[in-house]
Amino acid sequence: MDADAIEEGRLRWQARYDKARKRDADFTTLSGDPVEPVYGPRPGDTYEGFERIGWPGEYPFTRGLHPTGYRGRTWTIRQFAGFGNARQTNERYKMILAAGGGGLSVAFDMPTLMGRDSDDPRSLGEVGHCGVAIDSAADMEILFGDIPLGDVTTSMTISGPAVPVFCMYLVAAERQGVDPGVLNGTLQTDIFKEYIAQKEWLFQPEPHLRLIGDLMEHCAASIPAYKPLSVSGYHIREAGATAAQELAYTLADGFGYVELGLARGLDVDTFAPGLSFFFDAHLDFFEEIAKFRAARRIWARWMKETYGAKTDKAQWLRFHTQTAGVSLTAQQPYNNVVRTAVEALSAVLGGTNSLHTNALDETLALPSELAAEIALRTQQVLMEETGVANVADPLGGSWYVEQLTDRIEAEAEKIFDQIKERGTRAHPDGQHPIGPITSGILRGIEDGWFTGEIAESAFQYQRALEKGDKRVVGVNVHHGSVTGDLEILRVSHEVERDQVSQLADRKAARDDARVTAALDAMLAAARDGSNMIAPMLDAVRAEATLGEICGVLRDEWGVYTEPPGF
Ligand SMILES: C[C@H](C(=O)O)C(=O)SCCNC(=O)CCNC(=O)[C@H](O)C(C)(C)COP(=O)(O)OP(=O)(O)OC[C@H]1O[C@@H](n2cnc3c(N)ncnc32)[C@H](O)[C@@H]1OP(=O)(O)O
């Protein structure tokens, strides 16, 4: 790009920056010297390929979504939390909010994640252990007791049974007297990544996608600020994928949901802002920063050029980041604070919109209150003390980071071609039921391609670790005296007993005929193709349980079984 064009862009950015609202904060170095809100080529310099880098707040958004970077608003501190019953988790949320957490993020227990009630025989021993147990709307009401749902953005990490859980959240808001139309938050919902990596699926892919389509339609029409999909690379990475695989599979999944929305006749500029993303921040500091920057650029380009998105918001890739759980070690667990801080810094330098920092004890158990607080304070130290929120995309223009960004982008594009090619093989006539990328994803799930590729990457890393080429302190190098005398959070089995007995009381108190009629109406919608959200909401209002709702749909649609792989 020539010097004049660069200068034009800078002036455009400056005009937008001047008009934008900034935080009332001190934007100088620790020594008191002023810093610019963004840096670019020196006046008069040319820069080949600068159109791919650009200025913050401008297509292709490599340098961030907002002209002000974090000077307008810092990232959201959103600590993922949940354990035991709804009452215990509600107390933890109040602690997080009181300590400066910016939003809520609900972790559910395994039965809930699998669409089972606490009294299901398969739930035995799991209730309240890896997250909070939610059986019906009454639990959801307790979970958010004294937390005004209209004022706090709430993320819910659940994909298989995301839609009935979302209905419970809407009913909890109704019971608080909050208009569901004003709710803001994020539901994970991303079923592709369940088939690809996390394996908490319920139904066959096709009917499940139809249910997600219903959700997208409902949110686009009635809850405009709510993000019904958090397309997740985190679990793909944690399963062993490389950075480029994480990026490419996740963005491809995102394209799949765009194709789903388009196939339903929705307007891309209306529904695309409801798609958000979730990435892992692993330990290779610069590679991670490059991954985040490449993600924004690729998404914006595909949204504009392939899917016809016209508005900035429909081209924006907004993402939450969690530091890499898989990088934490049980050996010398205090070192995990350092790992997490470095990973969190990469997310911030990559422009994350929202961030969870893992607690130092998370390889061993759910976080204790002390460990959860240190994790939260880690973000606050970065945000308040280090100056990293002063300058947008401070590593833009670094030869290393720009080349890494280009390399990861090129690798991702190669993977998109492989996915498209699978789609063409599945439908050589070009008649894709949803869209070409979706056909490729579904084929890749069916034939075990994604899981095989991830397993191969995981194997290569493990081999490198065992040969000592890759090193982990306390694991294969620097074994030392830092011991782990941590107080671990243990969830009492009384939680399960109480939850089961409470569920029995609620079932005895409800109007069973109303529940049955509502479940029948939901099943009728599943069969006739009408949108299922309204009848599902009625079932939830009648206190139908999660297991009952998912059970009806399991019977109707069939459960998914993973293809055997070797
Ligand atoms: C591993 C574990 C497991 O499986 O067990 C998990 O999965 S845990 C998974 C946990 N997942 C999560 O917690 C997902 C979290 N995701 C989210 O919170 C969302 O989807 C998100 C990534 C889009 C972040 O949303 P957010 O509300 O926190 O932040 P946003 O960036 O959207 O900012 C909020 C508002 O401020 C505006 N805003 C932000 N920065 C600026 C700025 N500089 N100038 C002007 N406006 C600004 C945004 O445009 C937006 O307004 P407007 O909206 O008007 O534009």
UniProtKB/TrEMBL annotation:
The keyword Chaperone does not apply. It holds the Pfam family MM_CoA_mutase. Residues 29-558 form the Methylmalonyl-CoA mutase alpha/beta chain catalytic domain. One of its GO terms (molecular function) is cobalamin binding. SUPFAM superfamilies: Cobalamin (vitamin B12)-dependent enzymes. Keywords: Isomerase. NCBIfam families: acid_CoA_mut_N (TIGR00641). Heterodimer of an alpha and a beta chain. This is Methylmalonyl-CoA mutase. It comes from Streptomyces violaceoruber.
